[in-house]
Design goal:
The structure is a homodimer. By secondary structure, chain A is an alpha/beta fold. Chain A folds into two domains: about 250 residues, Dihydropteroate synthase-like (TIM Barrel), CATH 3.20.20.20; about 100 residues, Sulfite Reductase Hemoprotein, domain 1, CATH 3.30.413. Helix content of chain A is about 40%, strand content about 20%. In chain A, strand 6, helix 4 and strand 7 form a beta-alpha-beta unit. Chains A and B meet through helix 6, helix 7, helix 8, strand 11 and helix 9 of A and helix 6, helix 7, helix 8, strand 11 and helix 9 of B.
Amino acid sequence: MPPRRSTRQVEVGGVPVGGGAAISVQSMTNTKTTDVEATMSQIRSLIDEGCQIIRSSVPDEASVASFKEIKSRMLREGITAPLVADIHFDHRLALGAIEAGADKIRFNPGNIGPPERAIEVATAAKNKGIPIRVGVNAGSLRKEHQLPDHSHDDRNTALARALADSALWGVELLDSVGHEDVIVSAKASSVPVSIEAYRLLANECDKPLHIGVTEAGTTLTGAVKSAVGLGVLLSEGIGDTFRVSLATDPVTELGVAFNILSSLGIRRRGANVIACPTCSRCDIDLIPLAEAVELELKGVKEPIDVAVMGCVVNGPGEAREADLGIAAGKGEGLLFKNGEIIDKVPEGELLVRLREAIAELISSRS
Amino acid sequence: MPPRRSTRQVEVGGVPVGGGAAISVQSMTNTKTTDVEATMSQIRSLIDEGCQIIRSSVPDEASVASFKEIKSRMLREGITAPLVADIHFDHRLALGAIEAGADKIRFNPGNIGPPERAIEVATAAKNKGIPIRVGVNAGSLRKEHQLPDHSHDDRNTALARALADSALWGVELLDSVGHEDVIVSAKASSVPVSIEAYRLLANECDKPLHIGVTEAGTTLTGAVKSAVGLGVLLSEGIGDTFRVSLATDPVTELGVAFNILSSLGIRRRGANVIACPTCSRCDIDLIPLAEAVELELKGVKEPIDVAVMGCVVNGPGEAREADLGIAAGKGEGLLFKNGEIIDKVPEGELLVRLREAIAELISSRS
């Protein structure tokens, strides 16, 4: 992999973004912000899954008050993760959220009225010492940057250019009042458009980038789209923080996010299950076993590789490389630990023995 | 995206691979090959999902006979997709599968005994005019290419080099008897190792590449790992055919495979659902609606974009860009078709109206 792109570093409520900091993972609550109980409960779940930056949308005055309440409850409960206010259209809500203790404001300078309003927000944020994300989406591009017609010779390229231009326009506007602690995003629901827009931004500014494919879809298809887009960008050294945007419980987003980071060897959290797809060679009922092992490992936060393999072709090789592994034979399996065979187990007892071995391994590490 | 890497073209039972041909999608049956009924039934399902190359493992003599029966049944049923025999350890099974009508042999010249045996297989395949895939996996590397110890300074790099070397050794062996219609794979369960091994192969030979991350895991985590690995390679122009290896029903592999291709704009098959992740702004129960829409579109093979969006921020923009779209408001939604608002629909009727609009759109296209 090429080295990470070098950027300015921006601190978001204690979490450094860019400038060599570890890539941070974020998500967004999808409760009503005014439902403080439900939002707090979701925030706790997100934190438990490793979320480092929490964002909540602030669509009206009532949400400003709730946002303030949520931030102070978080602090009372010892949740130090930054809370970001997501703002659209109304700059007064941004000003309110800054007053309410937001650790960052995410807004699009291109959809908040005349430039003076964005400047007013930037000035207030600067005075309070909090960063801004200039967040541009293909579905809500600043009017001046929208493409003239529905069809276009090379619409993807033009749209990526428009997204980057619109974001850079916002960055310059904030720069004009000296607000330089800015993170930039330019997301499209199209993966190639998102990739191209971020490549342009990576070349044309020194701000940290919040990357992502927006509105990627429901769990499985959205995870695949996100993994392709984020995988390509991260493998090019682009991206300092990111969110996986799925139409599902946001807790699921975090699993997918860490799965992407772990796939690229950037950062491990939790178990990695290597499981063979099975074929005519497999003499045990492997797929339910692999699923059970994965479920078993769901709560584990330590990085641990477990191989669940169906036959002697790749089984012993993969089982030996993993921390723990099963290489199945006919109605039984060899159990491996740190490269050594430690037991030969009948099929019916494989899950139980593996569960014990996982517990032993984890307790021996802690 | 960079141009596709140029390669020799190899024909697999009527499906061209490499040399500018469209990237083909394949899968593998996971029934017992000797269970001809079950295998035929799975083959029909795979074909129905767009699978272009079918592979079955041939682990013993009985499977050779069944393989022959399956191939002739496929032809009788008008299933023209090539059937590939997956062979390990025993070169006589490869010779048997060639006689039995295999359209390609996949084997690893490094795990089939002394080189003379691989040469015997290559000669038989050449005489019959069928291609070979030299398929090397990290879990079953040729002994001479295995890494000496469990730990290594830069094990990923060393393993990628060993995988590529082992595959290239096999290719040369086949070349030595004039068998040049060879496709190459070198898969690891580690994404960075797979990516690096394929980059080496892409630089160091002119054979078409069958890419993939092997033993990627269960459905969601395995799909993410595969999407990252395949996404990075395909975005670099590397890869001529591929399989997504998941520990699940192989039909699911095909959905993920097309999802990866479609994400990169390489090839579309079926619907693309753009769905917002929802937030405090969303005033309808959007996630179940998005899931229902996706389910509704499952059988659709035509490329169609449907946006299911929760609010006015990105909703109208995305709904307008899609073939069909919903931009939800409070308890209702605007229905878009080809960029125009065609109806305002109460929340409870959105799915029904969208279903009608999908049917209309599809029938108007056919």
